[in-house]
Amino acid sequence: MHRIGATALVLGLAAPLAAGAAEVGFPEGWRDWRHVKSMVIEQGHPLFEAFGGIHHIYANAKALEGYRTGKFPDGSVIVFDLLEAVRADHAVSEGRRKVLGVMQKDSKAFAATGGWGFEGFAGGDPGKRAVGAKAAEACFGCHAGQAATDYVFSRLRE
Questions:
Q1: Torsion 51-152-94-45 (CA) sign
Q2: Hey, which of 48, 64, 102, 118 would disulfide with 139, CB 3.0 to 4.6 Å?
Q3: 154 within some domain
Q4: Domain membership flag for residue 126
């Protein structure tokens, strides 16, 4: 009985560690990847409070394959660069970086969220994780409605 209790305790402690072991890393060199699209979310849009500003979407080579075929292979990484929109002199330009959002495809590590891991880096700082354990609710909750496009909102324009 003592062994069973110890085994259950070890397994109970290991499960959260294993579940949390898969983290989305900061994508080095992402500015050299293919630019997929840009858009501006302005006041009045339902997502303005959370995502208002200028958006740029970048994709690594594997993600480009997914955009073209409709099925993103493991190793695909998509970056969502959200910047403040600064209006001055009848022009809109990029202000400070609000967050760098990252989607990373790993079917085994992120099976519960359609094979995608999600993270946001506050201000684009690799040391400031903004989503962490809330990714399934905060990110995948929204992306779940995009199952037909492998949970990706953006489309590649050639």
A1: negative
A2: 118
A3: no
A4: yes
Alpha-carbon distance 114 to 42, whole Å?
29
Per-residue tokens: 123: 């201000």
Token duo for residue 100: 């760098």
- Specify if 9 maps to a domain: no
pTM for this predicted structure: 0.84
Mean pLDDT, consecutive 10-residue stretches, the chain (158 aa), reads 37 38 90 96 94 97 97 98 97 97 97 95 95 84 93 90
Alpha-carbon torsion (32, 38, 41, 45), positive or negative: negative
Domain that holds residue 72: 24-149
Q: What is the pLDDT of residue 153?
A: 94
Sheet strand arrangement including 53-59: 34-41, 53-59, 77-88, 91-105, 116-122
- Say which residues have a Cβ less than 8 Å from residue 129's Cβ, sequence separation at least 6: 119, 120, 121, 122
Domain count, the chain: 1
The string of DSSP codes covering 68-133 is HHS-PPTT-EEEEEEEEEEEETTEEEEEEEEEEEEEEE-TTTTGGGTTEEEEEEETT-TT-BSSGG
Q: Is residue 155 part of a domain?
A: no
